[in-house]
Amino acid sequence: MLTIHAADLLLPGGRGAPVPGGAVAVRGSLIAAVGPYEAVAAAHPQARVRRWPGVLTPGLCNPHGPELLERAYHPDPREADELGTEPLTGDALAALEMTDARWGASARRGAQRMLAHGTVAVAGELRRGAVRDAVTRVGLGCEERFSQPQGLPSLDPFAGRPVTEAFPLPLGPEGADADFAVFDVPVGGDPCAALREHGARTCVATVLGGRLVYRRR
Q: Which of 52, 77, 135, 217 stands 20 to 30 A from 147 (CA)?
């Protein structure tokens, strides 16, 4: 089944220019075409079409993989009354009895929160086996990082750095992995400035390996 994902603006990453009314066609786990919606739709007239508001970009890479997944605890919703809903670090983390099973469950919830921010990969070495297994099952990629990222760890890969640094790879070419996200931000003016101002919390859809793994309701 071939699916076309269309948005108000496509920001392909790399040296590609923004494409108003852009689209990505996906066949299986791979990209079949990238470009203006009219051209993509004409080349694939039988495709199913999903339309999204805002800016379609390459999937994001969060540079703080170990900090967010191995040095923070993401509470289970059933623990919200006791622990709250935000990641726990420092003394709050030290007060918990963390087993491998608990680390794995925390990492799974953390990875799901990352998907909801348009993230398709994390950077940094993950040393806990339970965490690596959880991240692999969710489908996030793991990238090497060559220097310590600046700023505080955040679920928002746009925070504290140029927007384009959050894109590990540009969209395409045909046959590349279908990893991308869509953010409901204004498309007039500078799209990078809009993404930086409004942040990755505006994510409305994340596609990982051709699968719609997050959709804001």
A: 135
Q: Within the chain, which residues score under 70 in pLDDT?
A: none
- CA dist 46 and 181 (Å) reads 23
CA atoms within 13 A on the CB side of 197: 10
Instruction: Say whether 108 sits in a helix, a strand or coil.
Output: helix
Q: How far apart are CA 106 and CA 154, in angstroms?
A: 16
Other C-beta atoms lying within 10 Å of the C-beta of residue 73 = 24
Closest CA to 40 of 52, 57, 22, 54: 22
Gyration radius from the chain CA atoms = 18
CATH number assigned to the domain with residue range 2-59+170-215, chosen from the 4 options 3.20.20.370, 2.60.40.10, 2.30.40.10, 3.90.180.10:
2.30.40.10
Tens digits of residue pLDDT in 11-51: 999 989 999 999 999 999 999 999 999 999 999 999 999 99
